[in-house]
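Practice problem: predict the structure.
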Amino acid sequence: MQTIVHQDHAPHQDLARRAHGTWVGRMATCVGVVAVALAVAGCGGDDDVGGTTAAVVAPLALPGPYPVACSNVAQDFSRVGASGELAEAYWEGTPAADGTPRYASDLLTDPVNALSVTVNAPNDANLFGSYAGSSVQFVVLVCYPTSADNSRPDLALPTGQVVPRMQTGAEAPLWADASIRYPVLAFSHGLAGSPLSSDYLTVLSWLASFGYVVVAPFHGDPRFTNLQIDDFRDAVTVLIGLSDAVAMQALRPLAMSAALDLVLAHPQWREHLDAAQIGGFGASMGGQTMLLMGGAALTTSPGLAASLVGADPRIKAAVGYVPYFGQPLLPAFGRDQQGLDNVTLPYLAIGGTSDTTAPLIITQQGMLRLQGPRQLVALVGVQHEFDVPSGPDILTWSLTFLDAQVREVPAARTQLETMTSVAGGGDDRLVIPFDSPLSP
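Answer:
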């Protein structure tokens, strides 16, 4: 599996340079990294967690037990414009060099049977800037556990990846077991990525292979703002144009909630989804999106004022991988992360000790403000990218947390209280152990 860092294609660089620029770019602190390193050094070898025997657990085998199929996103890649352009630019919403808008919907060959939603931005200029009162389309991909005899062909992508067993035309989903209702995961990719970007599509498919129906909008972030920040001067530029950057972040949770509304009401999906078991998974800015859905307040001004975007109480718990909590001079959730003070959403954060885009010390500051069940895991030496050796660690932590909090699986609850790391893979360690008692 490739890392999310792509040196040859700028639009993919959310979990490297592009998202590295979110808000204030390279203004990460060596002090923060050192502080977290000291915290991690003291967390790996404890013999007990919460008074119980600590455990190193075996990693989950990837993928999970279910084959995976996905909704209709049939595309005509001959529509990709000038020589040298890539389909990813459309998936990610990156405008052409001349400013011409591009989005995933431009490539769809069967838009009637593809899933999409229209979000009507509230007439609130503080949060939505020039997009206040506007209507914005978001294409949605859904992947789900399917039956072993599902022989529908994959959709081959120009990246070499495939959309597995994709529905075509008005075909309905083919379920692993059509008699049961499946738990749902809201999936939010990182800044300027897409559900079809290589690593996101792999992780999305892994989550579905463990029995979740994964709902993933194409956020199309560059449609609203360009956050390519490499130095302080670029950070100042973002502050000058902060209104559109705030609007882009505020639209993300609205799109995610609208996508959930769509599948929960859709005649092909609604009878097979458990509306009482909805969790979330977000990477980088997607991790921030999950917290905004949990009722966090978003920073809206250089003075660090923060406003609520709109919580979605259907989300029972969420995981953030290298989640974006902001930077020291401009935290994502208001001054000193105070916008998190009333958030009770159970939340697992998995961060890297060498991440300067989403510094772990800033993540830790925010996590300690959460009022619900919370847990912070550090991946030693990992930067703002998908770390291939840590893949089984990431999925084992995530699925244990989600199974415990969303599915309420007793064995997962027990493991969550005691596990300190996952065997093999990368070097994963607890920074904040699970610190809320679990209900019986």
